[in-house]
Amino acid sequence: MSAAARNSAFAAFRRLLRAERKAFAGDLRTLTAAKLETRKQFLAAASVTAETERAELLQKAHDVAVYLERNIVQAVKRDDDVYKIQIDPTRHEINDNMDVKKPYTPGKRIPCCGPGSEVLPRC
């Protein structure tokens, strides 16, 4: 592995660990599991020699880091069955969830999985 490839892999590894620390702060068990899984995945990919496959793996690591940074929020239990969600508007994506708010029409399939979802069985 060239020095440039090693540096980019190490940068992706560090970014992923930083994203995990932010996303799972205060949850030691989940943070430890995420770190172990990240290490396992990077060690498994260390033997990849094909440049295209290596680029795909680095892009996947980048995508996972972005997902963790923007979409994972923590909820802390306050009282009986009351949770406070810790949302950082500068970091998290906030959507309006209009599709979720629409009333359910029996027999009407709501596409949820993108292209190819039409072949899934109806519920």
From TrEMBL:
<keyword id="KW-0143">Chaperone</keyword>
<keyword id="KW-0496">Mitochondrion</keyword>
<dbReference type="InterPro" id="IPR045298">
    <property type="entry name" value="Complex1_LYR_LYRM7"/>
</dbReference>
<dbReference type="GO" id="GO:0034551">
    <property type="term" value="P:mitochondrial respiratory chain complex III assembly"/>
</dbReference>
<dbReference type="GO" id="GO:0005759">
    <property type="term" value="C:mitochondrial matrix"/>
</dbReference>
<protein>
    <recommendedName>
        <fullName>Mitochondrial zinc maintenance protein 1, mitochondrial</fullName>
    </recommendedName>
</protein>
<comment type="similarity">
    <text>Belongs to the complex I LYR family. MZM1 subfamily.</text>
</comment>
<comment type="function">
    <text>Assembly factor required for Rieske Fe-S protein RIP1 incorporation into the cytochrome b-c1 (CIII) complex. Functions as a chaperone, binding to this subunit within the mitochondrial matrix and stabilizing it prior to its translocation and insertion into the late CIII dimeric intermediate within the mitochondrial inner membrane. Modulates the mitochondrial matrix zinc pool.</text>
</comment>
<dbReference type="GO" id="GO:0044183">
    <property type="term" value="F:protein folding chaperone"/>
</dbReference>
<comment type="subunit">
    <text>Interacts with RIP1.</text>
</comment>
<keyword id="KW-0809">Transit peptide</keyword>
<dbReference type="InterPro" id="IPR050435">
    <property type="entry name" value="MZM1/LYRM7"/>
</dbReference>
